[in-house]
C-alpha cells in the first residue's frame, strides 16, 4: 500500500524567510502533484511533476521530484502572508488514476 | 470550461433525512472522485469512477452511503439516513491522466 508522508505538518514562519516542505512516499512512482487549500476553500492544483528530476516554479514556490529517493520538495522563497494555506502532495501509485494524498502541511506566514 | 460543479454548496438537514450531493465533472475527464474532509480525519477518499464505472468504493463508510455515475457528465453521492457524524465537506474531483485532479468547490453538509 502506498504511503505518503509530509513534514512538517505545521509550519509557522516569518515573512521573508525560506523554508522547505518535504513529501516522501513508499513505492515507486513518477507522478506527483502539489495542491494548495486556503481555509474554507477547495483544493487547487499547484504543480504536476511527471518525471525524475522535474522542477516547476511559480512565484515564490518551487517544487522538485526525485523518484529514486521517492521524495519531493516544495521550497518557499522569501515567504509572504499570501502563502499561508495548507499544502498537500499526492502521488499516483499502481492503481491507475488514483492519487494517495499526504496529510497536508499547514503553513502560517507571520509579519 | 466552468470546472467541476458541485451542488448544493451548503446543506443543512435533520438526522434521518436523505441527502443527495451532485457533481458535474469537467468534460473529457475520465476519472471522478468523491472525497470527504473533516478536521478530525482529514481528506478521505470515498469512491472513484473510471469511465462511469465504480473502481474502488472501499472508502465508503457504511451502507448508508451510495454513489452513482449514470453518465460521463453527472454523479451523485447519497446518504440515507443521514447522521450527525456525516457532517463534513464533501468534494468531488475529476481528472484526466496524468494531469492531476480538478476539485469542485465542495458541499458543506451539516446534519443536526
Helix-strand layout with pairing:
The complex is a heterodimer of chains A (111) and B (112).
Chain A: E1 4-7, E2 10-14, E3 19-25, E4 32-37, E5 43-49, E6 55-58, E7 61-66, E8 71-76, E9 85-92, E10 99-101, E11 105-110
Parallel strand pairs in A: 2-11
Antiparallel strand pairs in A: 1-3, 3-8, 4-5, 4-9, 6-7, 7-8, 9-10, 9-11
Chain B: E1 5-7, E2 10-13, E3 19-24, E4 31-38, E5 42-50, E6 53-56, E7 65-71, E8 74-79, E9 88-95, E10 101-103, E11 107-111
Parallel strand pairs in B: 2-11
Antiparallel strand pairs in B: 1-3, 3-8, 4-5, 4-9, 5-6, 7-8, 9-10, 9-11
Report on this structure:
The complex is a heterodimer of chains A (111) and B (112). Chain A has 111 residues and is mostly beta strands. In chain A, 0% of the residues lie in helices and 56% in strands. With 112 residues, chain B is mainly β. In chain B, a hairpin with a 2-residue loop joins strand 5 and strand 6.
Strand content of chain B is: over 45%
Overall geometry of chain A: globular
Give the SSE order of chain B as H and E letters: EEEEEEEEEEE
Number of helices of chain B: 0
Note the main sheet of chain B. 7 strands, mixed
In angstroms, what separates the terminal alpha carbons of chain A?
A: 41 Å
